[in-house]
Each structure stands twice: as C-alpha cells, then as structure tokens.
Design goal:
Layout: H1 19-40, E1 49-54, H2 56-64, E2 78-80, H3 87-99, E3 103-109, H4 110-123, E4 130-134, H5 147-157
Parallel strand pairs: 1-2, 1-3, 3-4
C-alpha cells in the first residue's frame, strides 16, 4: 500500500508572526532589487544577457553553463579569439556588445583585454553593460592589470592594488 497525504499549505498572511509573512517580505525585497537592476539596465529591456570574448576553452566553458545566445539574424553573444581572429574583429565585437540594449555584462578574458582592448576598457565609464575581466586557462589573472579592480580599489581604499 502507498499512502499519500496531501496537506494544504498555510495561507499567506502579512502578520509579523507567520513564516509565510517572512517569505512574503523576502519576495518583495527580491522584486525591489530586481526592479532596481532593470532600471539601471537599458531602458525597458526585459532580457539581459551576458556576453563573452575569450579563448576557445574559456568561451566553451561559459557556453556549457547556458549563456550562449544566437538571435534570428545569426548574431551571437560570444566571440572565440584564436590565431585567425583579427584585432578589428575583436574591437568591433566588443563595441557591438557595449551598444547592444540586451547585454548587461561583458566578460573579457584578461589576456584578450590586455592585448587588444585595454585602451577601450580604460576609457569606458558606463555602469551597464559592466565589463569584467576574467582569467583564462593558460594565463593567470592579475588584478593589477584589471581596470575595474583598480577603480574599485581606489574608491574603497584610496590607493592602487599593490
């Protein structure tokens, strides 16, 4: 015999003493935070993507997590940089991601940033999309080279990363 007992969940109330009230409060708080993020994002866009520019292993790893996107025009939110990729392709893709209304974060492997995009990253002053430099499999991450980390360190501690 199998016995299945179906219990009715408690009714949600807004009284201070109920567990349902705590859940309700957390939901409101989460929705408010998400609302602030959406306001900071491009005007009225409902979907926000992460884009990535990096070596094949790094990009593949992120694509396996599900961030890959190909729209109806065949445009993607990722660029694999290899020996065949030109500096112009990298720069044009980077600028396209920065101007795209549905991209909230641009991930760039630090090696690519250092080699091709450093000046553009240094001149960039917007909050959204946010540019984040990430390590790659073959090159170690160096926070001293990361412009965003340097800016954050200056704001928080008043000095460069040593």
């Amino acid at each position: 015999f199998f016995f299945l007992m179906i219990r009715r969940p408690p009714r949600s109330t807004q009284s201070r003493s109920s567990a349902a009230s705590d859940v309700y409060k957390r939901q409101v708080s989460t929705q408010s935070t998400w609302g602030l993020f959406k306001m900071a994002a491009k005007k009225g866009e409902s979907s926000s993507l992460i884009s990535i520019i990096g070596d094949e292993d790094t990009v593949t790893g992120f694509l396996l997590t599900g961030i890959g996107e190909r729209n109806t025009k065949g445009e993607t939110n990722f660029l694999i940089v290899d020996s065949q990729t030109t500096a112009k392709q990298i720069e044009d893709t980077f600028v396209k991601y920065l101007r795209s209304p549905n991209i909230a974060i641009v991930l760039v492997s630090q090696q690519v940033a250092e080699r091709y995009l450093r000046q553009m990253i240094n001149e960039y002053d917007q909050v959204v999309p946010t540019i984040l430099e990430i390590p790659s499999k073959e090159y170690e991450y160096d926070p001293k080279k990361d412009t965003v980390m340097q800016k954050a360190n200056r704001l928080l501690y008043g000095k460069e990363i040593e």
